[in-house]
Amino acid sequence: MSRSCRLHLPLLSRGSAFALLCLLLRTLEVDALNLTLNNSHNATCLRAQWQMNFTIEYETLNHGLKNVTIQVPSNASYSGSDCGTNDNISQIKVQFGSGFFWTVNFIRENSAYFIDVISFSYDTSDNNAFPDAKEKGKVSTTFEVNTIGVPLDEFFRCRSVMTVTERNVTHNYWDILVQAFIQNNTISTKEYLCDEDESIVSTTAVTTMPVPTAKPIPKERPYPGTYSVTSGGAVCLLATMGLQLNITKDEVTSLLNINPNTTDCHGECHKESATLRLNDSSNEYLEFLFAVKNGNRFYLKGVNVSLTFVNGSDFVAANNNLNCWDAPIGSSYMCNKEDTIAVSDTFQINTFDLRVQPFNVVEGKYSTAEDCRADDDHFVVPIAVGASLGGLVILVLLAYIIGHRQQSTGYEQF
Question: CA angle, 369 as apex, 366 and 374 as ends, to 5°?
């Protein structure tokens, strides 16, 4: 069964300017883009250093959707960048790869400068960058920013990742340092922080005690998807579940819901083991490993995950010593309530409306289910019996104490 799955951190929508996408993991060390422009008098008019990449969604020949992330190399060309023909407009142009062009315009208004318009274009005729693209040709996207006003004597800095989605292209920018319309050939030493960096600095400044682990950001219940694996033309594994990934890094926790409508699944079925892998075109995956124990029961033995984030950082976690979703072979395991699989200290999976059968699937349908509530009953019954016995003992003791006191009172009357 073929679908596609994006396991990226969820993108925030474009707000008044850029929306923040918090990085949870370490930043992959890559060379930053670096540019210094001089005007006709050989005076420095613009200085910029930043990192960026682009995730592009396009249609393939089989009418499916595919994502490709374009990294910008440090040896990109800045040909065409200039300070402008007047003091009110300047522009950075970046060319790289086979047909990728990016531009940003800066405008000056009174004593401040603004990031005005950002444009990005690419050519889907490049088979290396866009394999199996249905439509061939140049595509352009443009959006206006023009809401961040920076004083002329300051440089703009934003270490946080900022993301904007325009049409089918997602722009990601981070480690930004830029000063446009530099005055008197003097680069400023005063920085103007983006709102996201400003909040980080403020929080750090007032904090004197260690910050406790952040609570997960509330997120809506994930929509359940049904996945299947076939072998010899017949379904050998069935799984229906809503999946929510819980990732913690540097005391920050993020929740990611898996969208079943854009999830690709495949796997393998063997006599005593089975695998279900959910992945996307960028080789990111979430893998479930099932096994047989005692010859008559199956269980979830392992989970492997590999994710790539917008800035190129990656996250890997694995645990092949789990003992979850236990049920007899020939039946399915079901758990409609929210359940959690603790894969590692930094990675958990929250499941919803779960039903899985990795062995002995007949006619592509689930067999009788063993409900996870039965597991709860195994604990409830002993607790109830213990509580009853405890209550009985207490009643016997109370009866003994009362009877003893009455008898003592009777002796005192003689």
Answer: 165
Q: How far apart are CA 208 and CA 304, in angstroms?
A: 38
Helix (H) or strand (E) holding 118: strand 112-123
Nearest to 80 by CA among 101, 97, 100, 60: 101
Contact 18, 291 (CB under 8 A): no
Pick the CATH number of 31-206 from 1.20.272.10, 3.30.450.40, 3.40.50.1000, 2.40.160.110: 2.40.160.110
Q: Do domains 31-206 and 225-373 have the same CATH topology?
A: yes
Task: Judge contact between 9 and 24, C-beta under 8 A.
Answer: yes
- From residue 250, alpha-carbon distances to 26, 38, 211, 345 in Å are 9, 41, 10, 12
Does residue 18 carry a pLDDT above 70?
no
Confidence (pLDDT) at 27: 33
Q: Report the distance separating Cα 8 and Cα 279, nearest Å.
A: 11
How many CA atoms within 13 Å lie on the side-chain side of 129?
22
Distances (CA, A) of 114 to 89, 142, 187, 285, 368: 10, 16, 17, 40, 64
How does DSSP classify residue 269? E
CATH of 225-373, one of 1.10.3720.10, 1.10.940.10, 3.40.47.10, 2.40.160.110: 2.40.160.110
C-alpha 339/C-alpha 351 separation (Å) is 5
Quick one: tokens of 313? 């950082």
Q: Which residues partner with 330 through β-bridges?
A: none
Strand pairing class (65-71; 252-257): unpaired
Lowest mean pLDDT segment, chosen from 139-148, 249-258, 297-306, 335-344:
249-258
Give dist(CA 94, CA 76) in Å, integer.
6
SS3 at position 378: helix
| Structural domain boundaries in the chain | 31-206, 225-373
Helix%, strand%, coil% for the chain, nearest 5: 15, 50, 40
Query: Mean pLDDT over all residues of the chain?
Result: 79
Q: Is 277 helix (H, G, I), strand (E, B) or coil?
A: strand
Helix (H) or strand (E) holding 376: helix 373-412
Structure token pair of residue 176 = 């930004």
